[in-house]
């Protein structure tokens, strides 16, 4: 085996290089919503990841500058909606100005107060499990209490600062096994 020098490495303190590197990793996109004081409150998050089966945990990262997360974190229950491939406009709306995030669609509301995007690939009714400071973000761990999912619905994927579609390359996988 021959090793070759890598001469293109840049310091992680170069914000532009760091953003470019982060954009190489595709991510699922979720809506995080709850009914607060009788009205839906929500936001989009592109740093969603599965964490654990026992207990059932997922995670997302929220910027410290978010004005929505402080309202959502106090809700007794949060609805996570994994956006379907055809829900780019809804995702963009939930990432936009707070006053207009629910314009043009009727969200679904669970008895727990969780709010969901209709037609999502999966919906997870969650409670905050833990929050961990992580640089300019907070890493939020959420415990899944109840859920519904349809793996036949293609998810919305965020990659290289744009939305993309998935392509199936095999029927089975051994990742994470």
UniProtKB/TrEMBL annotation:
Pfam families: Flavin_Reduct (PF01613)
Keyword Oxidoreductase: yes
Keywords: Oxidoreductase
Keyword Cell wall biogenesis/degradation part of the UniProt annotation: no
Domain Flavin reductase like: 22-165
Signal peptide: none
Alphabetical list of InterPro entries matching this protein: Flavin_Rdtase-like_dom, NADH-dep_flavin_reductase, Split_barrel_FMN-bd
PANTHER family: FLAVIN REDUCTASE, FLAVIN-DEPENDENT MONOOXYGENASE, REDUCTASE SUBUNIT HSAB
Family per similarity comment: Belongs to the non-flavoprotein flavin reductase family.
Protein name in the entry: NADH-FMN oxidoreductase RutF, flavin reductase (DIM6/NTAB) family
Organism: Williamsia serinedens
Taxonomic lineage from the root: Bacteria, Bacillati, Actinomycetota, Actinomycetes, Mycobacteriales
């Amino acid at each position: 085996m021959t090793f070759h020098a890598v001469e293109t490495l840049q310091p992680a303190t170069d914000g532009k290089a760091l953003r470019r590197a982060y954009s190489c990793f595709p991510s699922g996109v979720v809506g995080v919503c709850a009914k607060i004081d009788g009205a839906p409150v929500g936001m989009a998050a592109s740093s969603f990841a599965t964490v654990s089966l026992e207990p059932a945990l997922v995670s997302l990262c929220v910027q410290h500058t978010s004005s929505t997360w402080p309202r959502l974190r106090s809700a007794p229950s949060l609805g996570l909606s994994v956006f379907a491939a055809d829900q780019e406009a809804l995702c963009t709306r939930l990432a936009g100005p707070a006053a207009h995030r629910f314009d043009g669609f009727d969200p679904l509301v669970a008895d727990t107060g969780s709010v969901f995007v209709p037609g999502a690939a999966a919906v997870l009714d969650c409670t905050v499990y833990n929050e961990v400071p992580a640089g300019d973000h907070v890493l939020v761990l959420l415990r899944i209490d109840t859920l519904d999912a349809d793996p036949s619905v293609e998810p919305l994927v965020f990659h290289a600062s744009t939305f993309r579609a998935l392509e199936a390359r095999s029927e089975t996988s051994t990742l994470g096994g």
